[in-house]
Amino acid sequence: SDLRQMLATKSVENIQFLPFLTTDVNNLSWLGYGCLKQDWTLITVNTVGAALQTLFVLVYLYYSPAKRPVLLRSLLLLAVLVAGYCYFTLLIPDAGTRLGHLGLFCSVFTISMYLSPLADLAKIVRSKSTRCLSFPLTVTTFLASTSWTLYGLQLHDPYIMVPNMPGIITSVLRFWLFWRYPPGPDRPHRPLHA
């Protein structure tokens, strides 16, 4: 719905960028983990996720009036991703050790992705409005983090299970913020479209 809003209004007003950028890097990192582990669920989901998040980042950059900060953040996280790729492929020859290090790297990025929408927490409390938060993204985050936690539990993979638990917690916190500080009549909650 945020992408649809940007295309309709040709504006990025009241839409956060950082959650989508960190999600894109997160998808690309987990795609590498899935390839190394040969887990087709991780590969498929994160390939689709990375493609969609990259589309969002490009549309956001196109409609953003302040392109320089958006581009700098994107390039910074891309540099981190490239440095991580070089580290994991060139400096760690053992596949088991590489899988453990990459799992830890992905876990840290997943936690940062789930915490990034809370960057505006002080602004939300001060303004008593959740206009800058996306309700559909909150619902999706809750469902995704719950699903991945259960998937990690089923596989006995702590790298998948543990970092997704903060997603559940931060989603519940954002649901509370939406209840406590409604976004107002200019941006009501829209239902998720299938």
UniProtKB/TrEMBL annotation:
Membrane topology of the entry: Multi-pass membrane protein
Methyltransferase as a keyword of this entry, yes or no, is no
Return the Pfam families for the record: MtN3_slv
GO MF, one term, reads:
sugar transmembrane transporter activity
Taxonomically, which superkingdom? Eukaryota
Where is the protein found, in the record's own terms? Answer: Cell membrane; Golgi apparatus membrane
The alphabetical list of record keywords is: Cell membrane, Golgi apparatus, Membrane, Repeat, Sugar transport, Transmembrane, Transmembrane helix, Transport
Q: Which GO terms describe its cellular component?
A: Golgi membrane; plasma membrane
Which residue windows are transmembrane per the record? 40-63, 70-90, 102-121, 133-153, 159-179
InterPro entries referenced in this protein's UniProt entry, alphabetically = SWEET, SWEET_rpt
UniProt family annotation: Belongs to the SWEET sugar transporter family.
Q: What is this protein called?
A: Sugar transporter SWEET1
UniProt source species = Hemiprocne comata
